[in-house]
Write a structure and sequence with these properties.
By secondary structure, this protein is mostly helical. The protein contains 13 helices and two strands, in the order ααββααααααααααα. Strands 1-2 form a two-stranded antiparallel ribbon. Strand 1 and strand 2 form a beta hairpin. The N and C termini lie far apart (about 60 Å). The model has no long low-confidence stretch (mean pLDDT about 85).
Amino acid sequence: MTDIAFNSSAAARQRAVGSRWFGISDRLFHGMTFAAALTVLLLLGGVIVALLEGSWPAFAKFGFGFLVTESWNPVTEQFGALSPIAGTLITSFIAMLIGVPISIGIAIFLTEICPIWLRRPIGIAIELLAGIPSIIYGIWGLFVFAPVMQRHVQPFLINAFSGVPVLENLFAGPPYGIGILTASLILAIMVLPFITAVTRDVFETVPPVLKEAAYGLGCTKWEVIRNVMLPYTRVGVVGGVMLGLGRALGETMAVTFVIGNAHKIHASVLGPGTTISATIANEFTEAVGDIYTASLVALGLILFVITFIVLAAARLMLLRMNVKGA
């Protein structure tokens, strides 16, 4: 009896020590994760404060006119952000307009149509596209893609839409090769692997029983994709699209090589232009004077705000889609 009582007491002490250590480790883990999350907020706050402080001289001098002025003249220190803002939004819009349908189409092919033996090579190729540095895209775009655009694509577009209202102005001008359209196509190629990878992964989460039930009712493959797969995975697909849009908005080097870097808004997408990130990359090392530097920092702040608005809107849209789905 004495041995039994002693063993019971020892076991109780071990349980108490284990429970105490579990409580300490749990509080330690909670503190570490909280510190990590707080660090992210502090870093984000530090970035915002630095951008606000650095851009204040520009906003103090130009006011709201900085956002709606096209002029960019370092000699006279007259700066306006309208051209980079327009270039950023236009190139990103065209890139997503081209890249999203192709990316979703590739994801559908890989998950529903592609033979088993071919899925892995294509999947690896898509992943390799995502790993190529942006400067490589820029060099390829300047020395390979831009000449093709200049000799074949842009002349074809100019002749094809000649005399067509609206489209004639949209595809007008001499075929430079570089320009807004070329930069947009490069961006479309760059965002394609990200959207495709995310979309493919969410398509693979569709329960097979749902697709089998649809096929059992007599649905075609297209009807299963449209009425079963896309509604089931709409939140994930939108998330992948937003990931690609964030990449397109902030891309720097690839766009800098092929956009033409002209601070002017053209009615034609074949004309040269610039983006916020390209302007900063091109001119920051040459900025002389407080106003010039502050104007470039102000462009960075504007890009930060645009990206924040886009991601916040995407998050809100996803929440609404989740509510409707529930």
